[in-house]
Amino acid sequence: MQLMTRKKMLIGLGASLTIIAVALLGIALFYTGELEKEALIIEDGVSEPNLIVTNVSEGHVTLGITDSTDLTYGSWRSAGVFGMEWVGGYAQVGPIVKLNDIQVVREFLPVSGKLSAGQAVSLDGSAFIGDPHKAHGISFDDVRFTSDLGVLDAWFVEGDDDTWVIYTHGKGASRRESLRMLPIITNLGLTSLVITYRNDKGAPSSTSGFYDYGSSEWKDLEGAVQYALDNGAKDIVLVGYSMGGAITTNFLYKSNLADKVVAIILDAPMMDFGDVVDFGGERRGLPSALTDFAKFVAAIRLGIDWNALNYLAHVDELAVPVLLFHGDDDRTIHKRLSERFFEARPDLVTYVRTIGAGHVRSWNVDSDRYQAEISSFLDGIVP
User: Fold this and answer.
1) Nearest to 41 by CA among 172, 150, 198
2) Residues forming a β-bridge with 53
3) Predicted confidence (pLDDT) per residue in 256-277, tens digit
4) I need a surface site. Which of 161, 212, 245, 362 has the fewest CB within 10 A?
5) pLDDT in tens, 319-368
6) Domain boundaries, given as residue ranges, for the chain
7) What ranges make up the beta strands (E) of the chain?
């Protein structure tokens, strides 16, 4: 009788463990699917409207929330300067005049198109529309360079110096991301090359069909550096935004041209993709053990090499000065990554933490400080 009871208990325990294992696998597969959708699949770069205009007056606009508005961390309630886009138009919004839980009144500068109450809009961290000339009246040329995948487009702004600054944008962004920094660099007399890379609109697709978070895109940056050297550059300064920071860092680890780089500027860089996924799990309230299991399943199902995408693990290999910006309100890449970077290489890294800034929003929140930090940093490096 006792033997039969024990057998039943073991069978019941085994069944329970099987149910738990299947449930855990199902949850892990669900979050792996979410990871694929949110982080790996190529985006079209189009921002869906998530605010509604309730009033437009001379110099001010009132924006109301919608069902898709980020009520806690959205740019609509953040201090600073942002672009605002709607079908057929673009503007800039500035300092907050009045704010409550359902709407905000901000200073308003029209750029193109007509804005009326009732129109759906989205805010844009790039803050400027078009290209260097449309945004700032800066003359530029459209040029092309090559990488292992083929031909890629870039904006070329000629300077008075043989130091070239090459800009690499973040995931799902575009060359417009550079338009905030471009006037600073142009005023310093340096040449600029603002590049595209694989999976951008009109560019070749990556072999994986996904964003590779620097593991393949660094080759496109290498092609851009080679183009610069072939066209008169002597020294290279690299600028990387978000995933562009991963691309920039991996280029320094992998490329034979890395010794041509004299400095890098990073804005909210993605230095460890695994930590970014961990942070996403924390925001969702997931137990860390479940996130770890989902990452294990993702490694098998999607072929993600988490160790290869941890660029912090090799910062001892870096040999050039780094200017590092990160907002303390970043809800995409936690500031702890930049803090770890600074703590690991205080001999190289100048760390600028921006209070109240979201992801890649340090310029937006405090453009004067942003400009001053870049000018001071480059003044000590570029002859």
Assistant:
1) 172
2) 63
3) 999 999 999 999 999 999 999 9
4) 161
5) 999 999 999 999 999 999 999 999 999 999 999 999 999 999 999 999 99
6) 51-124, 132-272+309-379
7) 51-57, 60-65, 82-86, 89-99, 103-112, 120-124, 141-147, 150-157, 163-168, 191-195, 235-241, 261-267, 322-327, 349-354
